[in-house]
Design goal:
Length: 109
């Protein structure tokens, strides 16, 4: 029982560190992909596409879908935005994972 609790605590700590590292890398992917041309975080970027609070309204899976299949999701949700978001389906999986981790940290509006 104690061993299981210790293993769970270690796993939680390692997961938190890995998530934080991914989120930091994701912030770099956000900058490298020039997402701020269409989106904003805080006071930086295009205010017409705010991402503040995105983690309050979308799951990690939904955020991933918006990144890799934006035109399909926009059609399903009847979301209209000019210009329409393109699919970033050529991003490396690790970059998408990191970007999702970063966007999941955006919980304040």
């Amino acid at each position: 029982m104690i061993r299981t609790a210790c293993l769970a605590a270690v796993f939680a700590a390692v997961s938190t560190v890995a998530f934080a590292q991914d989120a930091g890398r994701g912030q770099k992917v956000y900058a490298d992909q020039k997402c701020s041309i269409c989106h904003s975080v805080g006071d930086a970027g295009n205010k017409k596409g705010p991402l503040d609070g995105v983690a309050l309204t979308l799951s990690a899976a939904a955020i991933r879908e918006w990144i890799v299949a934006a035109p399909d999701i926009a059609a399903k949700t009847k979301a209209v935005r000019k210009p329409a978001m393109k699919a970033y389906d050529t991003l490396a999986k690790e970059d998408v994972d990191a970007l999702v981790a970063y966007l999941q940290t955006l919980k304040k509006r």
